[in-house]
Amino acid sequence: MKYSLDEVRRFVGGIPRLLVLATIVFPLSGVLIGYFTGFGTSPANTRLFLSGLAGAQAGVLAIVFSVAVIGIQLIATRYSPRMISLFTDSPIFIYTFCLFVLSVALDLGLLYNVPLNSTRIFSAGIGAASGLAITAAVGLFVFVRTAIRQSTPDGAIDAFVSGMTSTKYLERMRESVESESEVAHPMHPLYNLAMNALSSGERVTAEKAVQEYGDLVLSIILELEERNTFEDEENQVRRQLFKPVFKEHLHDIALHAEEQNENQIVSNAIEWQYELGKEGLDLEIDRIARQAQFGMSDVLRDAPLETGSYISSNNVWEQIGQFLVDASDKPAPRIARNTASSIETNISSYQLHKISDARWYSHSMMRLYSKMEDAQEALLDHYAEDVANVDMEWQYEHVPDDIHNREEVYSVFEWRNTLLSTTASFLQYAIEEGQYPITDGNFKDSWQNICVEASKTPAEDYAITLCQALIEIAVIDRNHIEETGIPWSSTIGRVKHKGNPEIVEKAFERILQYDYVEKEPGPLFAGEMEERRQTYYQGQLNVQDTPTLNNRPDFPEEIEEIRREADERWNSLRD
């Protein structure tokens, strides 16, 4: 009953007050005038008047249909055939059509019952028919004006938004799932309009369509959540409710806008992916948050990096980095884990090997690593005790399956994997290209802040492994990359100064407990893992063509040299 009432309110709200007032005033005035004046004429003249009135209105009714058909053709040809429902479902069209039908029916009813001698009741009926005819004429004027407006881009968008309710949205999704057909998603017409506007170079129309698209989806999410739809609805319907919004609509709009060099629309489409996903986090609707994360990840995967513009890519990196922070801070450990994993995948697999000029990429990576810092801080605020108490060795990849807080620990574990994997990718790129794909100084500052923050928590083993990785970076950088700015050994010294120096010392000790091994490790056979770990240092970073630390000819002298330089920097800061 609540849904039906909402539909009635929407219908009534779509009819101008002027027309509603005319529907009441003119027929009522005609009834009163006819009844109290008792005017009348011969039966022949009365029949002539009523037949002429009915015929004229029938002709005007044909005009109403003609205007509707023209408007439908304009919308269907210019934007999307699915926008046809803007006219057929329009409250003003239905209301005007009903007015004419009712008026003609009244005329014909009176015509059939013309008395030989006029009565006050029949005169009131003639007055009502005349007033209703005037009202129908007013309705025709309002309808034509509305139809013309709806034939424009802005009018079509406004008509779609005003006509789409959460009830209609949900009903269409149910129909699609129940019929197992390829019925278009409820938001497809507006998506199609935006895409066609972009193709036609209509920037203002496309920008308005994207803004209204996001606002409408957001309002529908809030209304469906208020009705507990995400808990009560069938699982298949819930899964499909907003999946195309993220995986297809906003994704396609962002990439197509980049093709048209419409930077603002690219930014708007990607920002809506983030904003809607953030709403999913705030409302604790994991499905929406996951779909938003997948949608942003897909934009990264499909971004046209070969062109050298990086518009959509750079926008997504900013939003997905913030989304990682939001999920970590919520806390939503599964979403944080998935988001971190998608960052790792897109940098390592889809991004760096396509870059033609890292200078266009460095600032977005700098901002991403700043968000990585914030995400770790939030995760450790929530889960540092869990990380400290879990029975696992963080320098090896393993999270126990049988712990009660596995999801929480796994989110930190995946964040760490993302940090190490992306860092390894940056180092590999720097070795091959001679420069980091990230602002050098900020990269070092981020690693410093990450290690400092970890060293202040009870998660000691976790913090030590991060410091081990920092030492490995210093080794790789000094041997394979031209030194720029402050050396990594100085960064290690700053970690000792701002964080817990004992953690840094334990990281050095873990590395130096190994002896130099001239022979490189061969294939790993079953049962040899423990012996391998005792013989060869297990590096935290996997960079091609860089041997494990204790296979290096100058091990451990090189590690001791880095340690000495770090201590010098530490002592200078203490002084």
3D architecture notes:
It is a single chain. The protein has 575 residues and is mainly α. It has helices at 2-13, 17-37, 43-78, 85-88, 91-112, 120-150, 153-163, 166-179, 188-199, 203-226, 229-232, 235-241, 243-259, 263-282, 286-302, 311-329, 333-351, 362-389, 406-433, 440-455, 460-480, 488-498, 501-512, 529-535, 557-574. It contains 25 helices and no strands. It is elongated and about 125 Å long. The termini are far apart.
Q: What is the 3D shape?
A: elongated
N→C terminal distance = 76 Å
Largest sheet, described in full? none
Q: Specify the number of helices.
A: 25
Beta-sheet strand percentage? under 5%
Q: How much helical structure, as a percent, in the residues?
A: over 70%
Low-confidence parts, pLDDT < 50 over ≥5 residues? none
Mean pLDDT: 86
